[in-house]
DNA sequence: GGTATATTAAACACTTTGGTTAAATGAACT
DNA sequence: AGTTCATTTAACCAAAGTGTTTAATATACC
């Protein structure tokens, strides 16, 4: 438990893939889109000004990082969010909490307002 | 305030650079090292099995992402952590909080134990 | 069966990344 | 002034990333 708070063993590969996956706007957008509910590849591609094939590749990157789960539904692929790996990234960032403590505190207050 | 919680305007470039910077183990290690106090380039390079020039480039990536601040001190460059941009990444990830809520709650409990 | 639709695969071009070694810069020491 | 130390720059290379266009594949519809 909290193995991502403990000294880094070899979550390194995961973190590499996760952060790498997050480092492209189309991929972050795709995550935001599926956070709103499952989406087909075409739906995910629609807002972006690149080819369908390009988006397909981005989705593969997300899938490989474990952030996207894909379910075949007829000829459509339903993509849904698998956010668990994000908590690893979140956990890594939390190490640096102390360096922006005030900001984070404000965030938590804000979230509490939202969720209570 | 909370402009990283609001609809994305053009933090995109920042987030690209920040997540990209975090996507390499040497760079994450460097951040961990400077979190412990300022370090020279040589000190940061020491634990890693690559050339000094390679580490120098990694540090440049961190600097460009705003995660590292460098101060010239004689012939030594003192690198210290500038974690503020990490809070942007943190904030982006927080959008997905709901998808791993239980884990995050456990984390917060853990942190409270630590900091009180 | 034949055709449209959804998606991926293949082949290609181009850029970026991450590494190397060797030379350059610039401060510090004697 | 000359040398040593800390670091970056330059030139180079292989591999990975991001995009394209044109197949191919597989399901759905008539």
Describe this protein's structure:
- 2 copies of one chain form a homodimer.
- The first copy, chain A, has a single domain, classed as Winged helix-like DNA-binding domain superfamily/Winged helix DNA-binding domain (Arc Repressor Mutant, subunit A), CATH 1.10.10.10.
- Chain A has 6 helices and 2 strands, in the order ααααββαα.
- Helices cover 57% and strands 10% of the residues of chain A.
- A two-stranded antiparallel sheet of chain A has the order 1-2.
- In chain A, a hairpin with a 2-residue loop joins strand 1 and strand 2.
- Chain A is mostly helical and 116 residues long.
- The longest helix of chain A is centred in the last third of the chain and has 15 residues, at 101-115.
- Chain A binds chain B through residues 1-2, 5, 12, 15-16, 19-20, 22-25, 28, 31-32, 35, 81, 83-84, 86-87, 89-97, 99-100, 103-104, 106-108, 110-111, and chain B through 1-2, 5, 12, 15-16, 19-20, 22-25, 28, 31-32, 35, 81, 83-84, 86-87, 89-97, 99-100, 103-104, 106-108, 110-111.
- The structure holds a DNA duplex (30 and 30 nucleotides).
